[in-house]
Amino acid sequence: MAINLSKGQRVDISLQNLAVGLGWTGDSDLDASAFMVAGNGQVPAEEFFVFYNNLESKDLAVIHTGDLKDGGSGDVETIKVDIRKLDPRIEQIVFTVTIHDAESSGENFGQVRNSFIRIYNADTNEELCKYELDEDFSVETAIEFGRLYKRNDSWRFEAIGTAGTGGLESFVKKYAKAYS
Fold first, then answer.
1. Cα–chain-centroid distance for residue 130?
2. For 160-179, what is each residue's pLDDT tens digit?
3. Average pLDDT value over all residues in the chain
């Protein structure tokens, strides 16, 4: 039975081969990304930032299945994670969603509905947990949805749900300073 998470809630992840589904409804072109972060809070190399222009991590542990332009029902974008393949430097994977070209379109997350992130078994499609974003972000263009992180040799997921402005560039400056 899947767990419905609240902002800040954490859950143990016992899966080794999982998928992260991100969804929303509406006509907005949103982009899901994954930042594979080392102990210093930064991606260790450019190839550990997975997004629409780099669909696979260097170690092939994180694979983005592709960028879709519109929302819909169910998962709109999916990022697969095979924990067994993770580079040993990686201590967390941060999942973000940003509005593509928000400055020129004038869009913000207040116009996006039914946003969620869910973790499920990539082999059986059984849902483990889901976090539905229920806040109305009327000026924000970037959301840090959640993160997988290592704690004492096991993995956990935390529902974050914090938002800001600056789109994808704001997260690149935060997690990939050397490459911005």
1. 12
2. 999 999 889 999 999 999 87
3. 91
